[in-house]
Amino acid sequence: MSVTFPDTKYLLQQVLDPQQDAVYICDSNGFIVFYNEASAKLWGRRPEPGKEKWTAAWKTFDEKGQPFAPFSTESIMNGKLSIHNMLVEKSDGKRTLVKTNLRYLHDEEGAHIGFIVNCESVLSQNINQQKEAHLAAIVETSDDAIISKTLDGVITSWNAGAERIFGYTADEMIGQLIFKLIPGNLWNEESMIQEHLRRGSRIEHYETVRITKNGKLLNVSLTISPIKDANGKIVGASKIARDITLQKMQEVSLRESEERYRLAIETARLGTWSFDIKNHNLAYSTETANIFGTWSKALTWAVMMEAIYPEDKDLVNARLQEAMTNVDSGDYDIEYRVVQESKAIRWARVRGKVYFSSNGDAEKIIGTMLDITDEKTTKEILEQTVAERTADLSRMNEHLLKSNENLAQFAYIASHDLQEPLRKIQTFIDIIEKNGRLDPMPANYFNRIKSSAERMSGLVESILEYSRIDRQETQFVKTNLNLILKEVLEDYETLINTTGTQIQSQQLPVIMGLPSQLRQLFANLISNAIKFCETTPCINISTRFLFNDQLPDGVPILDSERVLEISFTDNGIGFEQQYAEKIFQIFQRLHSKSAYKGTGIGLALCKKIIENHQGYIYAFGERDKGSTFVILLPAHLVIMK
């Protein structure tokens, strides 16, 4: 006879449906009369109550996979029923291992009226046990302090990490209030935490301070989560406390380092910048913007590159390309000029580092920029000053060298040229004194004494003239060489007409020079050409411009890319080329005094005059075929029309 429970079905649903295990009830004949939701999930179907018996909902097998009927009427009546582990096959063919437990149901008089069967998934139980063991292992081995407490703040668990961080053992802390770890001035934090917990909120990475057993204050980061019971009611909280004291110290150190770096950058007026090559994003400091002087628009990479001084752009691009392809280094270091928005030009020292992707592609450049305009200006002034002082020193050395040469020549003159007429004068005076009377030759003696005295006077006058060359006018002025030539020809008009001299000249340039010395130069060259000619003198004056590489071998290079050449060519007696340098030395003569009058100072004066004009003079000739005297002057002395 079947027994139903019409009055208790609703109550059973409320009690058994929330259970995680499968629970169902059979009458005394084995017909299923009630089952909970977990049973339906286990079977994979919903059998109709009162129409299916025992295990009609699913097939069962023992742990070896053999068919097994644990709930047969015979086994129940014989009292052989016990707890079983068995495989249950659902309607979809999937199997799961369950542990079953059957209990008898009796009425008030003790009569057997049915059975209640409980089926617990062995797999789920094992998994839950494994999870619990794994969780416990994590908690115990964690470096962080993991603590649980009630909502009233009573500590209920304490792991090894908590003992290591705070110094208290579990026995010392379980049952104690959490306030034992909180400095007195921070107790109000616990009220705030409890308020969040009661609302079910989770607190993550809350940084605060806690106190250890020995009174040391620690910086900690707290993560606090509510703990709920099976019914979802909040009954406590778990706290994970991480010691971040070292991290805080490092943060402070980093902030101090950044502050020192910032102060150093500001003090040094150093600009910083970075450029994302892929996205073309430029980040820069105020000082960088100041260097580029872009006040009316934002500074971009294009604007930065456009502001580079035109003559420096190729060099900058080449250095950038070199840095962006050098994966091993990527260093970028260059000095270049920047044209600001106001058109002012500034010098900048730019240093950077290129960073590459794993594929070797340039991704980013980070760098600094320093305004070195003042440094460059100072350096240029210093270099210019040094160059000027060096040039002055060089001129002084050159002047000293010439002075030494002049002294040597004067010493030679004093010991030779001046001595020679003096010896003659002395000789004739001695003769006169020895004879004690006038003989038939006195007139000849006195003439020769007079001639020697006149020669010595001429030599002294020539020496004075030579020495005065350096003390005459030194200020260069605009000088027309055509007028200089005209004045010289007027001075020598009588001599030119008497000798029938023919003079041809090209148009001569206007130069910056010393007019009186240039007049003496032209006069000496023209008078020599007339004097040292045994036929009708012909003089040709020509001029042209040459580059230094067009000059003959042996001729020194002037301090000028181009030179002005003025040539005086005559048809005189000429000279042997081996004496080309000797003829420019003071008092050096190639002919006897009786053959050609003069002191031998003319060409020496010409040489000194040309040197005073930063030029050079040389000559070439051939005996009895004339000679050519070539004057070279720096082109920068020429005034171009």
TrEMBL record:
CDD domains registered for this protein in UniProt: HisKA, PAS
Q: Which reactions appear under catalytic activity for this entry?
A: ATP + protein L-histidine = ADP + protein N-phospho-L-histidine
A Pfam family found in this protein is HisKA
Its keywords, alphabetically, are: Kinase, Phosphoprotein, Transferase
Q: Which residues form a coiled coil?
A: none
**Matching PROSITE patterns, A to Z?**
HIS_KIN (PS50109), PAC (PS50113), PAS (PS50112)
Q: What is its EC number?
A: 2.7.13.3
- The highest taxon in the source lineage is Bacteria
**How would you classify this enzyme at the top EC level?**
transferase
Record-annotated PAS domain positions:
8-48, 131-176, 257-327
- Specify the Histidine kinase domain's residue ranges: 413-637
**Which residues does the UniProt record annotate as the domain PAC?**
204-256, 332-384
Xref: PANTHER family: PAC DOMAIN-CONTAINING PROTEIN, PHYTOCHROME-LIKE PROTEIN CPH1
Q: Which NCBIfam families match?
A: sensory_box
Q: What is this protein called?
A: histidine kinase
